[in-house]
Amino acid sequence: MNYELYIDYKWYFFLFCILVGIGYALLLYFQNKKSALSTKVRIVLGGLRFLFVSLLALLLLSPLVKQKITNKEKPIIIVGQDNSSSIMLCKDSLYYKNQYLPALQQTIAELSNDYDVHTYLYGETTRNANDITFSDNKTDISEFISYIEKQYENRNVGAIVLASDGIYNSGMLPTNSLNKITSPIYTIAMGDTSSRLDAMINHVKYNKLAYLGNKFPLEVSIKALQLDGENKKLTIAKDGKIVAERKIKYNGNNFSTTEQFAIEADNKGLQQYTIGLEAADNEVSTNNNRRTITIDIIDNRQKIAIVANSPHPDIAALKRYIDDNENYEVNTFLAKDFKESPANYNLVVVHQLPSSNISNNEVMAKIMDAKVPVLFIIGEQTNLAKLNNLKAGLQIYSKINKTDEAQPLFNKEFTLFTFDENTYKAIEQFPPLCIPFGEYRTATNAQSLFTSKIGTLAGGNPMICFVQMHDIRYGFIVGEGIWKWALADYREHNTHNNFNTLVDKTIMYLSLRINKDKFNINVQNSYTDTEPIVFEGELYNDNYEPINTPEVTLTLTTPDGEKKEYHFNQTNNGYHLNIGSMPEGHYTYTATTTYNNKQLATSGAFVVEATMLEDINLVADHSLLNTLAAKTGGKLLQPTDINNLPTLLKQRNDIKNIMYTEERYSEILNMPAIFIIIILLIGTEWIARKFYGEL
Question: What percent of the chain has pLDDT over 70?
Answer without folding.
Answer: 97
